[in-house]
Write a structure and sequence with these properties.
Helices cover 50% and strands 18% of the residues. By secondary structure, it is α/β, with parallel strands linked by helices. It has a single domain, classed as P-loop containing nucleotide triphosphate hydrolases (Rossmann fold), CATH 3.40.50. Strands 2-6-1-7-8 form a five-stranded parallel beta sheet, with helices on both faces. Helix 1 crosses helix 10, helix 2 crosses helix 6 and helix 8 crosses helix 9. The N and C termini lie close together (12 Å).
């Protein structure tokens, strides 16, 4: 079974995806972390993102894996734990541009589909239900008020020891929303058959219960 979850940055889709995967004993795939890992590699190695040749050469050198360590989903780039590095504001400020590159999306979509071949999965991102898994069993589109999203993201960064202002977070989200929804390749949009969940006034537990209720309904009709 494949559950696809799409939505804007910092709308709570990863929180929902992780909770569902745990509740259902499915594999959780953080597609956003994959794009962040590629962005980290490009920045670290000064890859010119507008050079198709440089992008192709860099992608050939990249491997991305996940491992569950002490209950936490950890992203490995070329066998190196980069979970902390890819969550920085520097990566957040550049990931949307990298994710808009056709060759990058082509490589990562291929990897994402490979992961799903032999497992029931929950995957979140921006084009999971529209491009990666258009035939997913269940699709959710998660949204929330922009102010709430910024506050949640800011609190998360502060809790993780990042030095950032609320204004910086707000500007970052506005920028990413614009790039994600207007890019030529696989723009963020709600799939026609996706179930929309607005969690502006929902806590994590309520959001999980709501999503599970839809999944239960689906399973009853299978």
């Amino acid at each position: 079974m494949t559950i696809a979850i799409d939505g804007y940055s910092s709308c709570g889709k990863s929180t929902l995806a992780k909770a569902l995967a745990k509740e259902l004993s499915y594999v959780y795939v953080d597609s956003g972390a994959m794009y962040r890992a590629v962005t980290y590699y490009f920045l670290k190695h000064d890859v010119a993102i507008h050079s198709e040749k440089e992008v192709d050469l860099a992608l050939d050198k990249i491997t991305i894996d996940f491992a569950n360590i002490k209950g936490k989903n950890i992203c490995f780039l070329n066998n190196e734990n980069v979970e902390n590095e890819i969550r920085s504001m520097r990566i957040s400020n550049n990931v949307s541009e990298v994710a808009a590159i056709g060759k990058v999306r082509e490589k990562l979509v291929k990897l994402q589909r490979q992961i799903a071949r032999n497992s029931s999965i929950v995957m979140d991102g921006r084009d999971i239900g529209t491009v990666v898994f258009p035939n997913a069993d269940i699709k959710f589109f998660v949204t929330a008020d922009k102010t709430i999203r910024a506050e949640r993201r800011y609190n998360e960064l502060i809790e993780n020891g990042k030095e950032v202002t609320l204004r910086e977070v707000q500007q970052n989200l506005e920028h990413r929303d614009k790039v994600d929804t207007t890019r030529a390749i696989s723009p963020l949009k709600k799939a026609d058959d996706a179930i929309e969940i607005d969690n502006t006034h929902l806590n994590r537990e309520d959001q999980l219960k709501l999503a599970l209720s839809y999944i239960t309904q689906f399973q009853k009709h299978c």
